């Protein structure tokens, strides 16, 4: 372990081999950090929480990179190769798979489930209780809400299935379910149960196409995106990406018949 000056690492924290800790970072006693992790300056790892998550460990998988000023609460679990930008907040009770990437100034408000190989860009807000599948893209300024009549104690979180893409500035209203492979266009507002592979556009969002019909003649790319972008993922993701692509394409027949 390598610890920079003025960092505060609790003796009870469990740190793996070759963990690098930056200047001014605080590691609470309930933190469990895997091998070969880097935690940069002024981070808070294992921030105390209230209620049922109080005292539960924060687990960060091996080969992760937490950039400066990130705050991760106790009671959360992350698989290997977690990567955050700067000023990221992740609240208690979040469970995520491997290779989650979160852009700067994003927040995940807790009690969330997130699958493997997800990509969240900067300034993304993931409302409490959200359920997100594998290989999901949330672009900058995306908002996942959960309160149908704010402020209230009612919670109706968003659910997003595998392979969905939510473009810049989109809002998913409480109770929205995006089935496998959906594509939400820039600035759209979406609610309700959206069928597999649907392309949504507008406010309120309307289904305008199926994702397998999206293509750019100018750039020579076509959806589902796994066919032209999947090579950017690690080798251990390739078989799963190919299977997901085939599933989304096969969904088109059912979509057309609706």
List keywords for this structure.
258 residues; mainly beta; UDP N-Acetylglucosamine Acyltransferase, domain 1; 2 domains; 10-stranded parallel β-sheet; globular
Characterize the structure shown:
With 258 residues, this protein is mainly beta. It has two domains: 1-111, UDP N-Acetylglucosamine Acyltransferase, domain 1 (3 Solenoid); 112-258, Hexapeptide repeat proteins (UDP N-Acetylglucosamine Acyltransferase, domain 1, 3 Solenoid), CATH 2.160.10.10. The chain has helices spanning 226-229, 238-256; strands at 2-3, 8-9, 14-15, 20-21, 26-27, 31-33, 38-39, 44-47, 58-60, 65-66, 71-73, 77-78, 83-84, 89-90, 95-96, 101-102, 107-108, 113-114, 119-120, 125-126, 131-132, 137-138, 143-144, 159-160, 165-166, 171-172, 177-178, 183-184, 189-190, 193-194, 198-201, 206-210, 215-216, 221-222. Strand 31 (198-201) and strand 32 (206-210) form a beta hairpin. The chain is globular.
Summarize, please:
The chain is mainly β and 258 residues long. Helices cover 9% and strands 30% of the residues.
Give the total of domains.
Answer: 2
Largest sheet geometry: 10 strands, parallel
The strand line-up of the biggest sheet is: 2-5-8-11-14-17-20-23-26-29
Percent helix: under 10%
What is the residue-mean pLDDT, rounded to a whole number?
Answer: 94
Counting helices, strands and paired strands, the structural category is mainly beta
Number of helices: 2
Shape: globular
CATH homologous superfamily name of the largest domain?
A: Hexapeptide repeat proteins
What is the rounded Rg? Answer: 19 Å
**Stretches with pLDDT under 50, minimum 5 residues:** none
- The level-1 CATH class of the largest domain: Mainly Beta
């Amino acid at each position: 372990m390598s610890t920079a000056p003025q960092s505060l690492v609790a003796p009870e924290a469990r740190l793996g081999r070759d963990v690098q800790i930056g200047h001014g970072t605080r590691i609470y006693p309930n933190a469990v950090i895997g091998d070969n992790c880097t935690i940069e300056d002024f981070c808070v790892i294992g921030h105390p929480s209230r209620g049922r998550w109080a005292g539960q460990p924060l687990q960060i998988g091996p080969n992760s990179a937490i950039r400066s000023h990130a705050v991760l609460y106790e009671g959360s679990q992350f698989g290997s190769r977690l990567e955050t930008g700067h000023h990221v907040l992740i609240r208690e009770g979040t469970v995520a798979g491997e290779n989650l990437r979160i852009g700067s100034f994003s927040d995940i408000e807790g009690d969330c489930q997130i699958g493997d190989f997800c990509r969240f860009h900067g300034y993304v807000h993931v409302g409490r209780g959200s359920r997100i599948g594998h290989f999901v893209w949330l672009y900058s300024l995306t908002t996942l809400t959960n309160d149908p009549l704010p402020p209230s104690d009612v919670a109706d979180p968003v659910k997003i299935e595998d392979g969905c893409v939510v473009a810049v500035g989109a809002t998913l209203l409480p109770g929205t379910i995006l089935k496998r492979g959906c594509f939400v266009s820039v600035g759209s507002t979406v609610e309700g149960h959206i069928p597999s592979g649907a392309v949504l556009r507008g406010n309120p969002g309307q289904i305008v196409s199926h994702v397998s019909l999206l293509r750019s003649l100018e750039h020579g790319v076509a959806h589902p995106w796994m066919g032209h972008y999947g090579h950017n993922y690690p080798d251990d993701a390739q078989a799963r990406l190919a299977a997901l692509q085939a599933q989304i394409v096969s969904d088109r027949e059912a979509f057309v018949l609706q």
